[in-house]
Write a structure and sequence with these properties.
Layout (H helix, E strand, L loop, with lengths): L1 H27 L4 H28 L5 H6 L8 E2 L2 E7 L5 E7 L10 E4 L4 E3 L1
Antiparallel strand pairs: 1-2, 2-3, 3-4, 4-5
Length: 124
């Protein structure tokens, strides 16, 4: 009876590994390892800035520009990182859009990333 349980477990683990491997391969696509690393870093940075915007809103009743965040020492690292430049479009108390645009010549075909008050990072 235990042998059937062991065989079943191995089949399930094998299927799970196969599905994981297929999804990982299709997600990575044709991007270079450096692009993957930088994009993940920029996504994380956008999430950090978005969280800072939420905290600023809770304290001040409105969203801040990047200059305001920087002036209040809430934007460590500045507005440039890994060949990307960050910019903000702020609509007072209703919302914000933070955009990370590749500005390095070697990254001209890399994605532009955005985050809004919904805290969802998107690519374009």
């Amino acid at each position: 009876m235990r042998i059937f349980g062991l065989v079943g477990l191995l089949v399930v683990l094998g299927c799970g590994f196969y599905i994981y491997q297929r999804s990982a391969t299709s997600t990575l696509g044709d991007t270079s390892p450096q692009e993957q690393i930088d994009t993940v870093t920029i996504r994380q940075r956008l999430l950090t800035i978005g969280q800072t915007e939420k905290q600023y809103m809770a304290t001040h009743g409105k969203y801040a520009t990047l200059a305001q965040l920087s002036h209040d020492n809430l934007l460590p690292g500045g507005i440039e990182q890994r060949g990307y430049t960050f910019s903000a479009e702020v609509n007072g108390a209703t919302g914000f859009t933070i955009t990370a645009t590749p500005t390095d010549d070697d990254k001209e075909d890399w994605p532009t990333l955005e985050i809004t008050e919904s805290m969802k990072v998107t690519e374009r």
